[in-house]
Specification:
The chain has a single domain, classed as Nucleoside Triphosphate Pyrophosphohydrolase. Strand 4 and strand 5 form a beta hairpin. By secondary structure, it is α+β, with helices and mostly antiparallel strands. Helix content is 27%, strand content 38%. The longest helix is centred in the C-terminal third of the chain and has 15 residues.
């Protein structure tokens, strides 16, 4: 999959132990809007999450989107877009280099939805599924960027809005 962007904070050293993570993100578009998770603070997050051990990207995408939005992705519609690579010192394990591969996929979803099953952290932050335009997503997230995932998702949506990602 092609690299769309590398986000490197350069706040680590090469002798640090490495924690490497692989995630998938679903880009679901309808009528000019994207399926997103919106927090109680007003920040938008692209649906998706970590790929579990022995899980394919497709299976992880289907599971994560269903859990976070209640949308049922149509497996045959999944098309790779590209990867954003994040490099930084791990915020949870100081002294560890964090390497995160986020793989983005265009996909379509059924019109029917099911109940979400979000994590306790997502529930505590008031996340809920919404549809929003890329311009409003970027504007809202730029005001609230405090976490690295917000920067990643905002940059991806900006590339999508500018037409550099198709």
């Amino acid at each position: 999959m092609k690299r769309l962007l590398t986000m490197d904070l350069k706040n680590y050293t090469d002798d640090m132990p490495v924690f490497e993570k692989h995630t998938v993100r679903a880009v679901i578009l309808r009528d000019g809007k994207m399926a997103m998770q919106l927090s109680g603070r007003g920040e938008y997050k692209i649906p998706g999450g970590g790929v579990e051990r022995d899980e394919s990207h497709v299976d992880a995408l289907l599971r994560e989107v269903r859990e976070e939005t209640g949308l049922l992705v149509i497996p045959e519609s999944i098309r790779p877009v590209g990867e954003i690579l994040e490099l930084r010192e791990d915020v949870f394990q100081k002294g560890t280099k964090y390497v995160c591969h986020s793989y983005f996929y265009f996909c379509d979803a059924e019109s029917e939805t099911v109940a979400t099953s979000m994590t306790s952290s997502e529930i505590a932050k008031g996340f809920h599924p919404v549809w929003e335009t890329p311009a409003r997503i970027v504007a809202a997230n730029e005001r609230l960027q405090t976490e690295d995932w917000q920067k990643r998702d905002t940059e991806f949506v900006r590339m999508l809005a500018e037409g550099t990602v198709r």
